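Quick one from the shared queue. A colleague (R.T.) flagged Aminopeptidase as missing a structural entry in our internal table.

Convert sequence to structure tokens.
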Amino acid sequence: MARKGLMPRSTAFCLYVLTAFLLIFPIPSVATTERSDDEKTSPPLATNGQPFPWRKMRLPETVLPLYYDLFIHPNLTTLDFTGTVHIQLEVLEDTSVIILHSKDLRISKAALLESSRILPLQVLEYPAFQQVALQADGVTLTRGSRCAVYLEFAANLSESFHGLYKSTYRTSEGEVRVMASTQFEATSARAAFPCFDEPAFKANFSIRICREARHISLSNMPKVKTVELSNGLLEDYFDVSVKMSTYLVAFIVSDFVSVSKMSQHGVKISVYTVPEKIDQAEFALNAAVKLLDFYDDYFDIPYPLPKQDLAAIPDFQSGAMENWGLTTYRESALLFDPKKSSASDKLGITMVIAHELAHQWFGNLVTMQWWNDLWLNEGFAKFMEFVSVNITNPELQVEDYFLGKCFEAMEVDALSSSHPVSTPVENPAQIQEMFDDVSYDKGACILNMLRDYLTPEAFKIGIVRYLRRYSYQNTVNTHLWDSLTGICQSDNLDEGRLGGGFCSQGKSHSAASKWYTEDELDVRAMMDTWTLQEGFPLISVEVKGREVRLSQERYLKSEDPTQTSGFLWQVPLTYITSRSSTVHRFLLKTKKDVLYLPEEVEWIKFNVDMSGYYIVHYEAGGWDPLIGLLQHNHTALSSNDRTSLINNIFQLVSIGKVPLDKALDLSLYLSRETEIMPVTQGLSELVPLYKLMEKRDMEELENQMKGYIVHLFRGLIDGQSWTDDGTVSQRMLRSYLLLFACVRGHPPCVRAATELFRQWKESDGNMSLPNDVSLAVFTVGARTPEGWDFLFEKYRHSLYISVKSRIKSALSISPLSHKLKWMMEQSLQGEVMKTQDLPYVVVTVSKNPKGYKHAWDFLRDNWGTLVKKFDLGSHSISHMVIGVTNQYSTREMLEEVRGFFGSLTEQTGSGLRCLQQALESIEENIRWMDKNLPLLQGWLDRWGPKPGA
């Protein structure tokens, strides 16, 4: 339960005394300067030249914050803010100095309240570590005592997307309105107020916000009162928060309006947005109510706050943020209009809300000790998206898409520059880099693998035990594994929850359960192999009669053998055979092992439904019966099994285990495929082949490859209707196929899209287009300067985020290269096209054969501005670096990219992991082209469509 009331009476008195004291004894702030010392050979120096009394990036554990009383006044006219913070502290070790975080704040006054004394504090600043030291002459704080510090500070509203930053939007009348919002994860609370900005320093927060009458303010907790100040401003008081980390603190000052509902469990849920878009909030509100109720029941732990606000922020770098009680979203991740939004919009918005609400338990209630275990937050939230939406919204068919997340993670994890799920990090850029596909998608995939292995019921009992044991605390990996071990050994946290006969069944369980056996599964030993080492295993299978010989090695795309030795996983293998559709299980703990079948089989398929995070190679002709099965009776395997075979065989081509022509032979079956995941996986394996050629002068072979892909899917493409009919997966597949066909110039598609665009344009954009096919229509329309300009005008004036998103995509696919350059420049300026969309625009332009050179030039020429705007190490920077470069395949471009990356300094990103990943990908592309182009040419001559076909 959250505490009621405003603040303890003693605290209010202390604040009064401190404020009076500081009016008399102000403490001058010290101007910041660049770091000039070599900390390894001499003590770090503060900005005033004095020795700084701490030399580590992590804060000392000498004091513990218990309670913050924070006052903040964001001035939306002067675009700056002022504030005060009073922090109650418990002293854990004798110390004469208090070290905490502060970034770009002007601290004007500071005092210590200790043993009824009020003492002025000297403030030493060390910008290199974003730290300040507070100390008073001759004062030592003794272990076990309590004290408080009081600080007054000021700063400008940030022009980036972090800290307390400025956001703007334009009304339909053209008026630009300003608001202030926060984004503190991972290390930006320190840019809004001085604090102990590490996740383990949890505390309670009492927040007061000063604003003009025309605005409202929001924070984590409900507002309890508003006081009118003498200058006509208003001060909102918010209830005391639950104990939480600084990165989860949030506040907004805006002119937003809201819609609200009560959940079944009595939580008030509200969606806030700019006034003109409030009619697009209903879908998110209903989804949030349903999902929060689901989590409340699933975890059997009540959501601890009285309200949950969801706010659509006009400028927002990532998709959303899980601030406790005030989740914030990019507008496109929250706003939905039934008449304007597509099936993929509905799925995407529901998934993002499910992700952020899962965080209210995984991340907020139980928080990782340090950012090295970020996956405990993000991997779980990504995993729970699928669990929750599958149950609450079965019509969205989310189970179709989970394995795609595993393939995305494997793309990164197959490089030698990958990192373990749990990996040491120290500085803010390294922490930012943890927000990647490994933490999110690999984290989710290994949890799904463990759930499949333990059984969903046992897994659920374990994670609920984990949440109950560590509520309001911080955890490391081993806490999770311990909670998932010995599921049926009752502890007092679980009493009353393990009934129903689950644990009493003992050894009568099916072979699907491994944890109950005599040699009980050591969850920690198994999962350490998946979290403490990077990469994933390639399982090689050789069948000889009834004997199945198994071996494992690290799957790695680079040619460095030193990167593969010494890796060993405990792999929970699953398999079916031509003689048995029952899922059989085998735990592979060693480099090599053998399992025995009850009878000989025609084929064997491992990694059933891609529930495991590994790929499989069928040696000694083992691929041939599987390829034959797909060609003659592909529905004998599930959609996910077909998808994983497509992915695995093309991955094996990359490392020389399978020749390209065998993978292309498998792809022939796709002419009969109708399910979304095998079709889109087939496209995602085949399309990059001609994308590599677009960057070289290989027009004849490139067109041959494009012709083969269109021919392969022609029946499915031509059978699509230009409507919004069908299931969510059918509608999303239609969007994907028609866009592909129109971009490739498939005549029936282009004719239909051209006619629809003509009608839409003649209606001045008022005609209602089917939402799922409108991107294909817009893309064909954007091919001409007149069509492009018309679409851009509609983009500028539309209030519908989903429509704007589709138009923006179409504009960036256009062959008009001068328009592509203009789009990137406009997105950087941020007035007409939002800067938050720049990474997407740059990467989409880079995939465009008329734009890829412009995208590289833009990235290189604006690098300094980009890292300042989006933050060093952020996913936005990584997305641009990888996205712009990962289709280069020439030694000339490799040297050009390497030369630019080599010119960077540590301050501008020379140490970023994404730079190494980009270079590795280009090197892999070069090797692939050198080895496989002759094979590809020969195969297409044999199997590709003949000219005129």
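The first strand starts at residue 63 and ends at 75.
Residues 913-943 form the longest helix (31 residues).
Added to the table.
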